[in-house]
Amino acid sequence: MHWRFIAVDRATKENGCLQVLKGSHLAGRVDHVLTGEQAGADPERVNELARRLELVHVEMEKGDVVFFEANLLHRSAQNHSDYPRWSMICCYNAARNDPYKDAHHPRYTPLSKVEDTKILEVGAKRFSDDASNVAWLDPGKDISAASLPEKAE
Predict the structure, then answer these.
(1) Which of 122, 107, 88, 115 is nearest to 4 (CA)?
(2) Burial class of residue 67 (count of CB atoms within 10 Å of its CB; 0-12, 13-18, 19+)
């Protein structure tokens, strides 16, 4: 599996940019465990690797893209700034590595090629700054949004 991390906003240390442990993808499989309701890489292994490997803050400008192998240990920090830090993460998995059971991640589905003009049509529609108007954040349409806190009035 490979990841593409696309900066929608400028990403800095202050607003919690992506961080990676350089070379950690060569350390073998790191199992994920539950910590509360959040799944993450085994903290004991991560802490040991953090003692040995360089932590790199991946500061990015809008539109910058980072490509990395899924086993590279990565995280982001809390945003302590007044600036947003939106990103788009795309994960690619070979069809031969289709999940063995149904879950909230989709199974392999072939992609349909569309005409280049579709990019202009979609690009013409602008997203609102108000995240509540973004359809993919609707828990009724996307199960991964179900755990988002209600917007304060």
Answers:
(1) 88
(2) exposed
Beta bridge partners of 18: 58, 76
The predicted-structure confidence for 73-120, as pLDDT tens digits, reads as follows 999 999 999 999 999 988 877 778 777 777 776 777 777 888 877 766
Q: How far is 41 from 31, CA to CA, in rounded Å?
A: 6
Domain count, the chain: 1
Q: Which two tokens stand for residue 22?
A: 């350089």
Matching residue, tokens 């009035």: 153
Indicate the pTM of the whole model.
0.64
Q: Please name the residues in contact with 135: beta carbons below 8 A apart, sequence gap of 6 or more.
A: 141
User: What is the domain range of residue 7?
Assistant: 2-97
